[in-house]
Design brief:
The complex is a heterodimer of chains A (358) and B (382). Chain A has 358 residues and is mainly α. Chain A is built from 16 helices and no strands. In chain A, helix 3 runs antiparallel to helix 14 and helix 5 packs antiparallel against helix 12. Chain A is globular. In chain B, 56% of the residues are buried. In chain B, strand 1 and strand 2 form a beta hairpin. With 382 residues, chain B is mostly helical. The longest helix of chain B is centred in the first third of the chain and has 41 residues. In chain B, strands 1-2 form a two-stranded antiparallel sheet. Classes of the chains: A mainly alpha (358), B mainly alpha (382).
């Protein structure tokens, strides 16, 4: 077996590709926790997209909702931390300030989602324009307020530290790394898999799911059987706001403890691409998010644990900016290969106009 | 005599009121919200006594810094040039039913193309150096716009996602070029050589460069293209209804690729104007938010090329005056982004505003943006 592998690795070009693949197989499980961590905001954004688009509302403004939640979570923590008692509880080191900040973060994203819902469902504005305006507004307002607040050198309220499972479990052969991947995490990252599976079941096995999908495919037929199209779309965009809020809170309350202007870095849009590649299903979107986050983590992984031999020298000689651009590059390429074969809900992006009673 | 001219005059006035009414109202409301934001943010400022008149101080400084003197007017014009060019890029896209959020990336790559060629031609005669370097920016931007165009035409990948991704890739490309192949050897920080003779000549004052004429020329060129040529007619038809365009024998896919490339070229020209007209060299910190402001410029102008001049002037004036606003009132320039976004928000809720305020004869329509969401997630042409 070893001889076969050495033989295969010796072939030019093909051997290089095989060596690279072998490196990925060896290195990715070790870094599964990191990959899941960078997948969290992308996956939650993708779930927000699934939630909205399944019921027929295109949501380009996820990025803005995330940024709002990220800022609000951070600033509320900064304001409350000096006032409230700071003894962390034994689980996840939660302080009262952090919990309240988290609630406000999610609510702020829901408020932005309400604006998007109103613009796209009631005002019947173009939904992509509406989402773009939300992005511009959130970027401007958070950058403005951050500049003002940071003049007073604010003290962060801290962040949700990760849970550390006993090393006896994480060092188990074969399944150890999977347990580490899902449980060596903070609360938001740990609940992601529950949200994904729960949402998948809810969307395809519940009455709400059936109604949501009906409203996204054929709103008029749905209305005919007594479903309130407008109300259901409003509710689902607000649920989407909760998911985007979790994604934003994750950035400033779990992945780090600070805010930066424009810190979402296009993750909301990568999430939309994950939604399309995942064919508008929660599980598919989660899988695609893992693919994109792997490409995001690759540069980091190669820097810390470069492969041996020619492959290592080649990978290290590629400029760092290439790895910075890699997730965006992978997103474009995968997206271009999937669109057309991945079919959106039929009424996606079309405002619904109730017919007047005669 | 008077009786025959009066109705004509009134109809001209009502037409202006119809198209400009909503934008003007949105601008006023946007500034009003900006004032509220200033008052609200005073509560967050450390060691600050609340001052009711701070918004007035801030807006007075904003006006002073943008049109208060000959110099500041010239600065406004210089700030307006890239906004008009990139605004045209977004507006042209809207006319074809495409949403070019990628103007920012095309702008960066255009600037990179211009500085690369400009540095190489720095010793050549000015006329040759300027025209070749400007053309390089134009073409580099066009190439960056071609990518989302061909992706949409061939695979149906919506330009809203692909252009955003290309914006981030452009940032990386620029960072790599400035710290790698274009870096001045031995320089402690990443910076390119000066463009030398490829710098755009100064026409007025100390900063008013040739780009002002380039921007005006492009407004004329895009107007002519859209409203006086067959190609422009086809672009507008594809924008209004891609299927109808195909039944009429036009080739929507070809038009999508062509229009996205042209959009890229215009945004690239904006980048060339900044790097050849203002900064003359490039650092890794290069890059303003021109490409995103361009969306506001195009929407406020309702995608009309001539309207782009006016909305470009408005936002250019705000950018030019924001420095003085920061000095005199302590308000960060990011306030302009907030005001800009609020103006757009009021524009989008135009139908509601005109109804609530009972403005008769004012169009609440945003214009030329109707088919953008319709093609989302689908093949460009069925």
């Amino acid at each position: 077996m070893d001889q076969l592998i050495t033989g295969l690795y010796g072939i030019p070009v093909v051997g290089f590709v095989l060596q690279f693949a072998g490196y990925l197989v060896a290195v990715l499980p070790q870094n599964a926790s990191i990959i899941l961590q960078s997948a969290v905001p992308i996956a939650l954004a993708a779930l927000c997209g699934v939630m909205c688009e399944r019921s027929g509302v295109v949501n380009i403004g996820i990025e803005g909702m995330m940024l709002t939640a990220a800022f609000v979570g951070w600033i509320v923590g900064v304001v409350l931390a000096p006032i409230l008692p700071a003894d962390p509880s034994p689980i996840f080191g939660l302080t009262p300030a952090l919990i309240i900040a988290f609630v406000f973060a999610v609510l702020s994203a829901v408020a932005v989602a309400l604006l998007h819902a109103w613009l796209s469902i009631s005002v019947r504005a173009d939904q992509i324009i509406s989402g773009t305006i939300i992005n511009i507004l959130a970027a401007g307002l958070t950058a403005y307020l951050y500049t003002i607040v940071s003049q007073g050198s604010p003290e962060s309220a801290g962040y949700f530290p990760p849970f550390v499972p006993p090393s006896a479990i994480t060092s188990l052969p074969v399944i150890g790394w999977i347990i580490a991947m899902f449980f060596n995490q903070g609360p938001i990252a740990m609940s992601l898999i529950v949200i994904v599976v729960g949402f998948q079941i809810w969307l395809f096995r519940s009455r709400w799911g059936l109604r949501s999908r009906a409203v996204g495919e054929h709103p008029k037929a749905a209305e005919t059987v007594g479903i309130d199209v407008i109300r259901l779309r409003y509710m689902n965009v607000l649920y989407g706001g909760v998911l985007a809020g979790l994604a934003g809170a994750y950035l400033t309350m779990e992945a780090s403890n600070s805010f930066q202007a424009g810190m979402t870095g296009g993750r909301g849009f990568i999430g939309l691409a994950a939604m399309i590649v995942g064919r508008w299903t929660p599980l598919g979107a989660f899988g695609a998010a893992l693919l994109f986050s792997s490409s995001q983590s690759l540069g980091q992984i190669i820097k810390f644990a470069p492969p041996s031999g020619d492959v290592g020298t080649t990978l290290l000689s590629i400029p760092g900016q290439f790895y910075d651009a890699l997730p965006y590059l992978v997103t474009i390429i995968v997206l271009a290969g999937f669109v057309g074969r991945s079919i959106p809900p039929a009424a996606d992006g079309q405002p619904y106009e109730r017919e007047a009673a005669t | 005599m008077t009786s025959s001219t009066a109705p004509a005059e009134r109809s001209v006035r009502s037409r202006i009121w119809r198209t400009a009414g909503l934008p003007i109202l949105s601008i006023l409301l946007g500034l009003l919200v900006g004032a509220v934001v200033i008052l609200g943010s005073e509560l967050l400022l450390p060691d600050h006594t609340f001052d009711w008149t701070l918004p007035i101080t801030a807006y007075r400084a904003l006006i002073q810094g943008s049109i208060g003197s000959v110099n500041s007017i010239i600065n406004t014009l210089v700030e307006t040039v890239p906004l008009v060019l990139a605004g045209l890029s977004v507006a042209l896209g809207f006319k074809a039913g495409l949403f070019n959020i990628g103007a920012q990336g095309q702008f960066l790559i255009g600037a990179l193309g211009a500085v690369t060629v400009g540095v190489a031609m720095a010793g050549q005669p000015p006329i040759l150096a300027i025209s070749v370097a400007t053309l390089a920016g134009f073409l580099a931007g066009a190439a960056w716009g071609f990518i989302p165009g061909i992706l949409k035409a061939v695979s149906g990948a919506h330009e809203v996602v692909t252009t955003i991704m290309l914006n981030y890739i452009a940032i990386s490309v620029l960072a790599w070029a400035v710290s790698g192949p274009l870096k001045v050897p031995g320089s402690p920080s990443p910076i390119t050589h000066d463009v030398g003779n490829a710098a755009l000549p100064i026409l007025v004052g100390s900063t008013g460069h040739l780009g002002i004429l380039i921007a005006l020329g492009m407004v004329a060129a895009v107007s002519w293209l859209l409203f006086r040529t067959t190609l422009g007619f086809e672009i507008r038809t594809v924008g209004a209804n891609p299927d109808a365009a195909r039944y009429a024998g036009m080739r929507p896919k070809r038009l999508i690729v062509l229009t996205m490339s042209a959009c890229g070229a215009l945004a690239g020209l904006a980048g060339a104007c900044i790097v050849l007209g203002v900064t003359h060299s490039m650092t890794s910190a290069f890059g303003t938010t021109v490409g995103f402001d361009a969306i506001a410029v195009a929407l406020l102008a309702r995608s009309n090329p001539v309207g782009v001049i006016f909305s470009g002037l408005l936002f250019g004036a705000m950018r030019a005056g924001s420095g003085l606003m920061q000095i005199e009132a302590g308000i960060p320039p990011e306030l302009i982004d907030v005001v800009q976004a609020m103006i757009l928000l009021f524009l989008v809720i135009g139908p509601v505003l005109t109804r609530v305020l009972r403005l008769r004869g004012v169009s609440g329509n945003l214009g030329a943006t109707e088919t953008i969401t319709r093609t989302y997630g689908k093949e460009a042409v069925s």
